[in-house]
Design goal:
The complex is a heterodimer of chains A (802) and B (177). In chain A, 62% of the residues lie in helices and 7% in strands. In chain A, strand 3 and strand 4 (93-102) form a beta hairpin. Chain B has a 3-stranded mixed beta sheet with strand order 1-2-3. Classes of the chains: A alpha+beta (802), B mainly alpha (177). At the A-B interface, helix 1, helix 3 and helix 9 of A face helix 2, helix 3 and helix 7 of B.
């Protein structure tokens, strides 16, 4: 035999040459290309080996029968095992079934016990859209098998494509799948391998889910492993990373199915398992829903490519992304919630997923400034007085003179600690101050109940000043102590704030659970009215703004406002209820109802010197309501009040003040005072850059600066600014987010202004495709209209000037 | 020898030991399961700094091979029952027409291929032991998918030819089916 190394490159060249050709022409070509008969022989040997591999690769041996079932043919194979179409004689006739032969990695006693238990649960599943488990057994080699109802159907996506099914019809089918999965969840069974090939549609149009719960057989014991069972293209990050699975893992799988149904693609392309693990480890987002659309995709959905792009933007994109969030807690809380969302979409109601991308005035910002605590340093008196105010709220602590004296001593000590002139080692910031206060408190207050109420006051101040982690730890300590002492009011109060903090930090399931517990606990007899109101407000607000919007929440907020008034709560607590109610109304698009409440709040805050930040935030809301409803002229002085107030209470770097500028500038621009808008934003730009440090916070600064440049015909500056904005947002916000649409719009305007129409066209098209389907308010429509008219203008114009 | 290899290998051996003990009840290894679990452990070793992902993937792939071979060798000397068979799942069926191949034979064939063409061995390792797609392998090896497919077709033909020869020589059953 010849030695390959002597002819290695030649060997490969000839091999490649032959594989390019039809089999009949190979020998002749080989003879022409190579004169060495031994080398030719070697090429033929390799070709033969290769051919045998290609042709025989997928034929696996299978037995003639398993148990009483006769095998007809193989239906499919995967990590779980092989599925056969089988038949069995029953009452004189042959019936067909699907038989799944499992390949357990460990078939020990524990596995068998688990298998028996799971089978019992699975056999109890009876749902028209779930294939029934009919029988189980062990093959002669000791491998377990499951026998299921055989569905002579077509895979879901193929069925939809063949029927050229429209998007709404596909969503109707998808809602049925959600129902089936939800039914199984109620029976405590997860699917964990949801993918289009596990959903069949029968000839009569009935959806059938296959393989329920069988992936669980592959997890031996409780040890977390990556099951060989997962399908890389559709598995959730927690499954890939060997973390605990939950109903949210099925929400992810359903999201992947929805992705395929809508766009014809896969959320992670054709990645291998390792590539998916790598992506999951780096928490990388899935592919964009509209990334792989083709005209064939559109045709299979009975529409045009352009129309499909529009339809899949906005709500549907938001729904799919919410399902495919990396962290389970960021997805829909349940399959029911997802199904509801699909029905809301189908009945043209606004969907919840989109509301999360509501950009204006994030709630985080407002929460942070609720009590108007001066951040940073300098206003020491205000800091201490603020903590003192919280302290005074805890009236029990002041019942007796002795306690009052102790408290005074303590406060006095804190003053001294906070004042650099007295210590030499200044406590420079509110968080520092509160931390010191918390650690010194036990030295002054000995009674456990009083200690708890002091700790509550300090912890709430921590919360107000944004030290969330420290506040959370403090509340947890208080909650434990209150539980031991059976002090239900302190316990509930700690619950309320822990729930609020967890929600704010994005731990929704835990946060919502605590708030709901607190809400129930607060109904107990003898509970202070302040806690009843707080519990209602925080519970309803967080439910309403985390994807669980109901009218009941709004009623709760209204009830809280009423109770606060009736029971003479401190103005600050009453204000909290009103504030949340007004904010909620604004976000529901009822700003005309919200405005009088905001105005009333101003009178409440008027007497409170420490509420400067709150008052400024309220001015900001009122100004924004006026401006977005078309009364920009009225909004100008109010924006200024808000801005000046924030600077005074927070200092020159105030994010609250910066938050006012884009809309204030927009109001100026729309009033044909764009020069002033440019000046306003240009002056603040260095501060904004320093404060946000490259994040997308308040990126509207750039957007409205670019728009002001356009309005003053400074198109080159506008282009530079718009490009900076687009670069900042790309990859950080969802591709279909309105901020991206607005960025494209202003860039197109900047380019069109320089008569670079050809370059402007793709940007205006991108702007239209994002802004049109996502515009909900009249204010948002002004941007979409602008995009549409620019698009019409550009398409009508010759592009030869480029 | 790659310095990273020396750094990572002992740690991986440790992890693999525990995994294989769990697997030992079955005489058939499930490489994608085991190997990907190893890979996960590897990527989650945050203390390790890799110059680039290409390097990382190639290293991971060759580590996987090394570990499977070590395990097969150990099992071989223990049982003297003809060695450890490696199950071939969907993605890996191309390597042989038999449902499984002997890990040690395969390794020996790869050692020989390495002397002829190390790059093809890197490719085989990426596809076989790490289960990457052709696209991903192309990206890792800085080449095109068509080159990867062409080279892979040649490499697997060569390996299959080589493995058949081994089976013939050892008198084992040849089952091309």
């Amino acid at each position: 035999m010849i030695r390959d190394e002597a002819h290695w490159h030649e060997l490969q060249r000839l091999f490649a040459l032959c594989t390019e050709l039809p089999e009949t022409e190979r020998l002749a070509a080989l003879n022409r290309a190579c004169s060495d008969p031994k080398l030719r022989e070697r090429v033929v040997a390799l070709l033969t080996a290769s051919e045998r591999l290609e042709s025989a690769a997928h034929v696996a041996p299978h037995p003639a029968s398993i148990g009483p079932y006769r095998i007809i043919r193989e239906l499919g194979a995967g990590g779980l095992g092989v599925v056969y179409l089988v038949e069995r004689l029953a009452d004189g006739s042959w019936l067909r079934f699907a038989l799944k032969l499992l390949v357990p990695s460990v078939a020990d006693e524990a596995f068998m016990e688990r298998f028996r238990r799971e089978v019992q649960t699975l056999a109890a599943l009876e749902h028209p859209n779930i294939t029934r488990l009919l029988d189980t057994g062990w093959s002669s080699e000791g491998r377990p098998y499951l026998v299921m109802e055989f569905v002579d159907g077509v895979q879901l996506d193929a069925f939809c494509d063949a029927a050229r099914m429209s998007i709404p019809s596909r969503l109707n089918l998808f809602a049925q799948i959600c129902d089936a999965v939800s039914y199984a969840h109620r029976n405590m069974i997860l699917h964990l391998d949801l993918k289009p090939s596990n959903v069949l549609v029968s000839a009569t149009g009935i959806v059938k889910l296959l393989d329920f719960g069988t992936s669980k057989f592959m997890h031996p014991g409780i040890e977390a492993t990556i099951a060989t069972a997962v399908t890389p293209a559709y598995a959730s990050p927690e499954q890939l990373l060997g973390r605990p699975v939950s109903a949210a893992s099925d929400v992810f799988g359903l999201g992947a199915i929805l992705f395929a149904l809508l766009s014809g693609g896969r959320p992670f392309g054709d990645s291998s398992l390792v590539a998916r693990i790598e992506r999951a480890t780096h928490e990388l987002d899935p592919e964009p829903l509209r990334g792989t659309l083709t005209s064939e995709t559109a045709e299979a959905r009975g529409t045009t490519l352009m129309r499909l792009r529009q339809v899949l933007g906005g709500d549907l994109e938001a729904i799919v992304s919410k399902c495919l969030c990396h962290r389970p807690q960021d997805r829909y809380a349940s399959v029911d919630a997802l199904g509801e969302e699909i029905r809301r979409y189908l009945s043209c109601e606004p969907v919840l997923a989109r509301r999360q991308t509501w950009r204006y005035r994030s709630t985080k910002f407002l929460r942070r400034h609720r009590l108007g605590l001066a951040l940073g340093s300098g206003v020491l008196a205000a800091i201490v007085a603020s903590a003192g105010f919280a302290w005074l709220q805890q009236q029990r602590a002041l019942r007796e003179a002795e306690r009052a004296v102790r408290t005074q001593t303590y406060m006095f000590r804190l003053f001294k600690m906070a004042n650099p002139e007295n210590t030499g080692k200044p406590v420079a910031t509110v968080p520092d101050f509160l931390r010191v206060g918390m650690s010194k408190l036990p030295a002054y207050i000995h009674d456990p109940a009083d200690l708890r109420s002091g700790q509550l006051a300090l912890a709430e101040s921590m919360f107000d000043s944004g030290s969330l982690d420290e506040a959370l730890a403090a509340f947890a300590t208080i909650k434990d102590s209150a539980k031991r002492a059976d002090a239900s009011a302190d316990f509930t109060e700690a619950e309320i704030f822990m729930g609020q903090i967890l929600c704010q930090q994005g731990h929704l399931p835990e946060g919502r659970k605590l708030l709901s517990d607190a809400f129930v606990d607060s109904q107990a007899q003898g509970m202070p009215w302040r806690l009843r109101v707080l519990a209602k407000v925080y519970y309803a607000w967080n439910e309403d703004n985390n994807g669980f919007r109901t009218d009941e929440n709004l009623s709760l907020l209204r009830a809280a406002v009423k109770e606060a008034e009736q029971h003479g709560l401190a103005p600050r607590d009453a204000a909290l209820a009103m504030y949340d109610l007004a904010m909620d109304l604004t976000m529901r698009g009822q700003s005309t109802n919200a405005k009088p409440i905001f105005e009333h709040l101003l009178t409440l805050y008027a007497d409170d010197p420490l509420a400067l930040c709150d008052r400024s935030a309220v001015y900001g809301w009122i100004a924004w309501i006026d401006h977005s409803n078309g009364d920009s002229a009225a909004s100008l002085p109010i924006f200024k009040k808000s801005y000046d107030g924030f600077i005074e209470c927070e200092g020159p770097d105030s994010p609250g003040a910066l938050d006012q500028l884009p809309y204030w500038a927009d109001a100026l621009t729309r009033l044909s005072r764009a020069n002033e808008a440019v000046q306003l934003l240009e002056n603040a730009m260095p501060t904004w850059r320093r404060v946000v440090g490259g994040s997308t916070d308040n990126s509207d600064m750039l957007m409205f600066l670019a728009r002001a440049y356009v309005a003053t015909a400074r198109f080159r500056d506008a282009e530079t600014t718009a490009r900076e904005l687009l670069a900042l947002l790309t990859g950080k916000v969802a591709a279909g987010d309105r901020t991206i649409g607005n960025a494209h719009l202003v860039l197109a305007e900047a380019l069109a202004g320089q008569e670079r129409n050809r370059e402007a066209l793709p940007h205006v098209d991108a702007a239209v495709s994002i802004l049109i389907p996502t515009a909900v308010s009249a204010y948002a429509h002004t941007f979409s209209d602008e995009a549409l008219s620019l698009q019409a203008r550009l398409h009508a114009m010759p592009t030869a000037t480029d | 020898m790659d310095p990273l290899f020396n750094l990572v290998y002992p740690r991986l051996r440790q992890i693999a030991g525990a995994l294989f003990r769990r697997e030992s009840a079955a005489s058939l290894l499930q490489p994608t399961g085991v190997v990907n679990e190893l890979f996960l452990k590897l990527v989650s070793q945050r203390t390790l700094q890799f110059d680039n992902r290409e390097h990382f993937f190639s290293l991971a792939a060759s580590l996987m091979r090394r570990i499977l071979v070590d395990h097969a060798r150990a099992a071989h000397s223990d049982k003297r029952d003809g060695g450890v068979r490696v199950a071939l799942d969907e993605e890996l069926v191309w390597i042989a027409t038999t449902p499984s191949v002997d890990m040690l034979d395969l390794d020996q064939a790869l050692v020989e291929l390495e002397q002829l063409d190390p790059r093809k061995v890197r490719l085989v390792e990426l596809r076989f032991f790490l289960g990457t797609t052709s696209d991903e392998a192309a990206e890792i090896l800085h080449t095109s998918k068509s080159t990867v497919d062409r080279e892979l077709r040649f490499a697997r033909g060569w390996l299959y030819d080589r493995l058949q020869t081994t089976e013939d020589l050892t008198g084992a059953r040849l089952d091309p089916r």
